[in-house]
## 1
Amino acid sequence: MSDSTPATPRPTTTVKVALLGAGNVGAEVARILLDHSTEMAARVGAPIELAGIAVRDLAARRTVELPEELFTTDAEALIDAADVVIELTGGIEPARSRILRALHAGKPVISGNKALIARHGRQLQDAADDAGVPLSYEAAVAGAIPIVRPMADSLAGDRVDRVLGIMNGTTNYILDQMDTTGAQFDDALAEAQRLGYAEADPTADVEGHDAAAKAAILASLAFHSTFTIDDVYCRGITGVTAEDVAAAAEAGYVIKLLAVCERCAGGVNLRVTPTMIPREHPLAGVHGAYNAVFVEAANAGSLMFYGAGAGGAPTASAVLGDFVSAARRLVLGAPAQGAEPHAQLPAVPMDDVRTSFSITLTVQDRLGVLARIAQVFADHGVSIYTMQQKDDPHGTAQRSEIRLVTHRGTNKDLTATVEALRELPFVEDVTGVIRVEHAD
Amino acid sequence: MSDSTPATPRPTTTVKVALLGAGNVGAEVARILLDHSTEMAARVGAPIELAGIAVRDLAARRTVELPEELFTTDAEALIDAADVVIELTGGIEPARSRILRALHAGKPVISGNKALIARHGRQLQDAADDAGVPLSYEAAVAGAIPIVRPMADSLAGDRVDRVLGIMNGTTNYILDQMDTTGAQFDDALAEAQRLGYAEADPTADVEGHDAAAKAAILASLAFHSTFTIDDVYCRGITGVTAEDVAAAAEAGYVIKLLAVCERCAGGVNLRVTPTMIPREHPLAGVHGAYNAVFVEAANAGSLMFYGAGAGGAPTASAVLGDFVSAARRLVLGAPAQGAEPHAQLPAVPMDDVRTSFSITLTVQDRLGVLARIAQVFADHGVSIYTMQQKDDPHGTAQRSEIRLVTHRGTNKDLTATVEALRELPFVEDVTGVIRVEHAD
């Protein structure tokens, strides 16, 4: 269902969006809605209008580069005039009252407010259910990682037994630094603060409160039950020493601040604690400020979802995914369907595409060989990324092996290069012609 | 919205399910629908009835342990009598005609048929859109990994730039074996066949055709366009040698059969080829028969989805996730909402939960110390998983350090154990008391 399938008529009334909050994420959401309004309209099936941005203090608008006339301090009037409400203010009140006001008026709400959802999620969901409109909060758990929807929908036919999550980027950055550099907690925290990964007051992160809120939300979805942040046993990482990290490493473990939600006798236990996990566990490979959620389900087995857990643009992506779904449902009167080909990009054949190659040459070891080979690449417009020569791979001093990785070139040019290399008199063999994906 | 929120009335008519196909996945779907019908009913909001299983040949029913009376060869009659159709037969015809028959009659369809969706997905989706019913095929791409729904919904407000996928478990197993054991392709293939990871005729896997079908489906969703398997440039792994793998390893790379779908000048290029990726890339850590999809999006940044790409139970999980969504929509006349607390499991406090701990003791090195310590654990009903003694950590021969990891015990017992250890006269310090998650 999209603009390119005219068989299905649909309303073209503009969808008016009320944005509450203009922090990191709010400003990014506003920017994307303004800069990419045509794309958004194609995805939703109707024009999108950012009706306004509610802030507590109009002085706040000066910190973000958005049109001044969009800002208002009258959130209630903005909500009443909108079709969809995006709440990105944080805290319990007035966020809760405003979300309830929108839901009671039958307006879909998207929220990224983990503290609120972890505390009053049930009340808000009931209000949404009563009004028959969606309440979505993908952005409230693990930032950009799509986990709320997979948990609620994709795993709806399975039984989740355990959820293990690295759900706070600040603490993962600190522990990862301690693991890779041997730093003490205080030094790693200072470094995280210097780089903007940790706030001046890092309490909510390092004491585990942020991860605990996310764990309560995720466990509610995973176990079809209602948990709040008060159900989560929570210990932070301030007591973890460089010696603990080193001892864990020696034993083949890495220490992560892990949220664990697991079925046990009598129900579900929710905890956030520094936890040793084996180095070979997929979660052990989650470095820096990245987040990941590892799910163990009866039939699906082990699943992992990995991505950026915070940041303006990543979190805005999650907010806008929820927004497009909600708006599409509003416009079409039905949930979104599968592959909607509104972009209709053509498939580009291999010969017109630029990729990198690794190539191994066995050559007779004569003076000037490298120069001649490099010239062949240059003649075909392919530039060399790395080149490595190894003497005597086959036990004869007259031969050597040269391994090259190219920059991106067209398939046609690379094929022609390989053919030309094969014709060089001193080239005995060209092997290992394999594509490479690397940052270049 | 569930049976436990009586405020919302809903029809309680039974949802009749037609299952087409009784292979690995079909048999598993049938088993779960039969064995877990009460749970399924709670999730859907109405009773579920497996109306029948259509097979080509009734002799096939003897290979699976399901009630004989469920089987039929009249797929059309079964479809006509059902409310929801699950197609797990594979191949183009008669699967396509049967899916169209169901969609034209306004019945939601769930399919795991990648060959069909990769070839005729657009036609089937148009039929579903015209009828206003969902066509779902999470099981057709990367087995249990929820990727179709995140791609279609969660990333709907973002711009996907590139998708890199390990989408075939057989070839990943073979390449992983070659990487870790130095085996040649033929030997790794034989091992995969012996373990049931590869079929007797491995062509579709090792030549990349299976991955190519999945790439076409995924790219259609990622780029809001229509691609078929014919748009995918496809090279298999039969030419990859042990020498190639060793050379890649030496250069810091690992070879994977990668599906790459990327925006480029003029559109999107789709390719499946053996590809070298840096060892530090998250996809490099995908071992054995596991699958993973790595997505690069403008705002979300890098995301990865990891899990079992094949197998009866994992794929059945994906089928049933789609089924619950479709059936819930049928019953409620609306898409599924968020946290439906139909299970209402209680939160279990920490003291009643069994977890493992790592504990480090600094002790005066006397005869019988280990026995006394072990006795303390035994007295508190906590068993020891591993114990390691290191002499002289602080440069004095009179002290040693003992590191223990326990089996699971209650928090209460572990706390009491630590307290008792602290009171032992020869114990100087108890440090590094950290929870451990390991298989036990």
Note: Residues 223 and 266 of chain A are 13 Å apart (CA to CA).
## 2
Amino acid sequence: MKTSLFSSILSRRISLAEIFVPCNVGHLRDALGGHACMRNAAYSTGGQNFAATGSIMDRIFAPYTVYKGKAALSLTPVLPTFTKLESGNGLRVDRRGNMMMKFWPAIGERKYDWEKRQLFALSATEIGAFISLGPTDSCEFFHDPSMKTSNAGQVRKSLSIKPHQDGSGYFISLSVVNNLLKSMDRITVPVTTAEFAVMKTACSFALPHIMGWDRYTSHQRPRVGENPSKVNPQMLDSEWDR
Amino acid sequence: MKTSLFSSILSRRISLAEIFVPCNVGHLRDALGGHACMRNAAYSTGGQNFAATGSIMDRIFAPYTVYKGKAALSLTPVLPTFTKLESGNGLRVDRRGNMMMKFWPAIGERKYDWEKRQLFALSATEIGAFISLGPTDSCEFFHDPSMKTSNAGQVRKSLSIKPHQDGSGYFISLSVVNNLLKSMDRITVPVTTAEFAVMKTACSFALPHIMGWDRYTSHQRPRVGENPSKVNPQMLDSEWDR
Amino acid sequence: MKTSLFSSILSRRISLAEIFVPCNVGHLRDALGGHACMRNAAYSTGGQNFAATGSIMDRIFAPYTVYKGKAALSLTPVLPTFTKLESGNGLRVDRRGNMMMKFWPAIGERKYDWEKRQLFALSATEIGAFISLGPTDSCEFFHDPSMKTSNAGQVRKSLSIKPHQDGSGYFISLSVVNNLLKSMDRITVPVTTAEFAVMKTACSFALPHIMGWDRYTSHQRPRVGENPSKVNPQMLDSEWDR
Amino acid sequence: MKTSLFSSILSRRISLAEIFVPCNVGHLRDALGGHACMRNAAYSTGGQNFAATGSIMDRIFAPYTVYKGKAALSLTPVLPTFTKLESGNGLRVDRRGNMMMKFWPAIGERKYDWEKRQLFALSATEIGAFISLGPTDSCEFFHDPSMKTSNAGQVRKSLSIKPHQDGSGYFISLSVVNNLLKSMDRITVPVTTAEFAVMKTACSFALPHIMGWDRYTSHQRPRVGENPSKVNPQMLDSEWDR
């Protein structure tokens, strides 16, 4: 199986005033044959806003890192942010979470150059492709951080995951072609079956958190008997109403 | 494997005064050959009551949504509600949770008609069928929201999940035949293997929450040494007593 | 694969003053060929004590129940209880948790006789056997609630899980032979693949909670920088010390 | 598949002032053919510091233990510790967690000698190897607690997991060769398929906690709208910045 995804990312802030949040999904091989280029609210950036909420999200530093001969690779979950509904009656996902992969090259024995790190943020659906990889499967994801801006196509990132021929693990590679900086980087980190198992287990654990679904829990809600104020009947969808 | 389930839903409120809660399970192919048409307390609606508790359940908006050429599909967990026991000594599931699937058609490039959305609420057991689907399996669920009312059979909903022939994902279709409105809708959304992996992982995560089992956790209980008041010995069942 | 477990349960309270807690494991086919009949602290009962802590554990009522033509079956997790260490510096599992299965027969169409219910409490290891069952596997567990008392052998319970021949699910049967009451009961409930998937997913979710491992979480511990008082160096085992 | 890992452990405290934490990974068969001997901050010990934080980590006693004819084996998760960032704006993993395995021999019928216990602390990656073991796979891990000290090579520990020939479970063996004490111990515990399923499920559950990823949860963060103070822009990495 070869999975190929193409995530087109908007660099401008998408209004989330609509009732639904566009999901961070885009791919070249649409099963209906369409060319739908999906909107992605997950990575919309708003300058100051990002700095503010970003700092909240990044407060825990517990990356899973593998150090190899030529480079290092770390995984860190980034949680979504929420905004209050104007009705005052709920929270809605504002910026979706992701699994941040960081690659940085070795510059000597057990020395690594953090300044040369390259980043790739896996969306929920890309995590889905990642955790469903079989031992002989490979996959590749493409990101264009500048899509739909005047710089579209200037920076192209591609993450590929390929199995070792002897089945003992995978090669994980990040390629970054930056026409603006006239640079081209490729960092490859081999991971063992055991390390990959950690990544898959940890990503499966983190996925619902990245989606914001850890908020759907009985523990966080008002106790039984409490009266919710300002019920907005527009929001109450029941299967039986339609 | 072809799984076929038929959930008969009561539209009236079932009394939960009994010690046990009827589970949301019904299916055509009963292994004992019976024609048992199971009661389902999960979706019982009580007008005002539903509005009140529904608003509590719906306060988090973090759907997983896939936008495709002809339609969009979102999944959102809906948590159960609890009522206090009359003895004051516990909580019992009142309305069971579900996984709400929403379908709405495209009406142009990247434009979708939210007003035409159709809903289908997967019960715990239907989620069980969903998450155990293999790559070549299909399944179909049937709901009659008006069952056991004078409108029984007037609205028939059917959700089907069928694999792509090339193994690259699934078609998820919702058909709604509404004799009252003389309408017939069918919305199909193709999902990739990666998107389906997200749905399965997220549904597996959400299932215990939908069942109310996230309440069974050491953290929520009184600290060791605290005295529970009003112990109701009727409720204390031990294997060794019988 | 046919797994056969035999859990011998002590009916007297086992002292837990030792540093380790005997685990609820016993089985006929010991891989070393021994006949070790394991101690089981999990179900030790202490009359009043059980009533007191039992009421804490049973305060949530969210069973997963399947109603079939001839009988009904429900699963409910039972959490462990903890006692404070005498040093005041920790909590130790006192009574281990289990997955309580309850069976009760039908006495008419959609009518069930709760008074005739029979119970079987799956230990952590029996849950392990349950969740690792493949589609064609079967297993059987044996319990003697009165083991090591003068009534040993008087009551014998056996739970068996066998696949349907067409692979569409399992038969779950509980047999109870009670020589004291001169009674012999056998209740069988067929479960579909979907229902079994719910049970497996829910049991996998519940297992760490039943073991008390949900207590091992960063969130519950003192904040960084807080000083733990009364450090008991006896308890601090490091791999490097031995 | 035969997996062989070699974890080299530093006995001195590693400075964690760098932005990244070296991960507890080391193995003989580096896929790139290198001989990279990875640093491991996870088990660094700092005397008093360890005692202090260790007592916090060890406060819950809920081991999963199997008692067999010749020896007993228990598993207990050990959580990581965190330190506050100097900026006051976050927490960073200080000491990584592990899965502590303890072996102790039988000295009679149902009597075990706790004083002769031997310990082996599985790192995150070793847990990854453990939980991805298939029914016919085996694996072996090597630890040298004194590596990079003058006592390097004096104590060698090796944990091996091998399947029973009939597929009914595994043998788990710990060998400890201590040249300083002129001692050589080998303790083997057979575990059934059911017991191994408990270990795998429990280790999969515990892995994210051991990695500190249970801290990445929406519930622990400031409410939406709260202002984080002292945002350190150095820490805010976005995929789009590089």
Note: The two ends of chain B are 39 Å apart (CA to CA).
